[in-house]
Amino acid sequence: MARISSITRYKLRKVLKYALVTAAVGSVLHLFSGHLELRLLLAWIFLGAWTGILEEFLFRRRFRSLAIPLQFLGKALAVNLFTIFVMGLAWMASRGHATVHLPLGDLVLAIGFYRFALQVVVITSVAILVVQVEEFMGRRFFLGFLLGWYDKPRVDERVVLSIDLVGSSALNERLGDMLYFRFLNTTHSLMTDAVLRHDAEIHKYVGDEVIFTWTMRTGVERNNCLALYFDIKERLDAHRQHMMREFGAAPEFRGGLHGGRVITAQVGHIKRAIDLSGDVMNTVSRVQSMAKSQKAHLMVTQEMLDRMPDAANHFRFGEPIALRVKGGKRQLMVRTVERMAPGATTNEQA
To answer: Is 0.85 surpassed by the pTM of this model?
Structure first.
């Protein structure tokens, strides 16, 4: 049986999220009214799945270029108008105006069309808002805020990959602030498929720098943390001509990769955020700086490579280079990384 791709899993998870959020909001609404029937719960689950399918497969890309509030308003308006239109057909079918009998017909007839339509608009809009906020924050951090996971610092084993844009200062000066922002936004959008394919979380954007993270298990599985960089590079290279036509420049990134013990905690009081800290974050920054000095695309610590024993079957590594970290008290070995062409002979790690 073929393995479901990460992109397909992402889409299915999103439809499921809509179904669960819609069922939860609808259930709360009807509990306040004093009754909750099984058919109502099933109807909200069906409505949530329907909303997820519309939002993900029909309307998603149509509103992507808008500001976040306008994305929400556009999606809510489009999904609700389409849903109410289908509900109208179901209502007419239930009253005998059509031979086709749609699933929501009996329910619409029992509750009343206008009352049910208002409930659909409210519940669907809340579901779209919740899912959009969850996407904006990231699933792990969104759940962390809701459940209070990060009120106290948590220690995890994580993989961290940081990539930054080569020649960003000169490019910003040449393009100007507004065009440079569009350039970065387009570049980040092109990374999406690769990020989903390798199960990465985007921790945050820091100017022209993007920080990706995985749990240790997910990061080393199928060499995700190494393969992501090169898949992003291939994706950007495939759109090089388009970027040159639109901006007169094409993006190129360098990266640093390391993994280990990371502290995840909520920081701030007036403005709260969830951040990663610890020796791993400092080391990733140092590895990335070494990649710049070595004029390398990607560099990785030997400690991280030791966790991926089959990486040498797919990647070629340079000679180890000593890197002192944490105030010069500790020394790590760091290596350049290149992806081997299919059919190339493998090399052994030192």
So the answer is: no
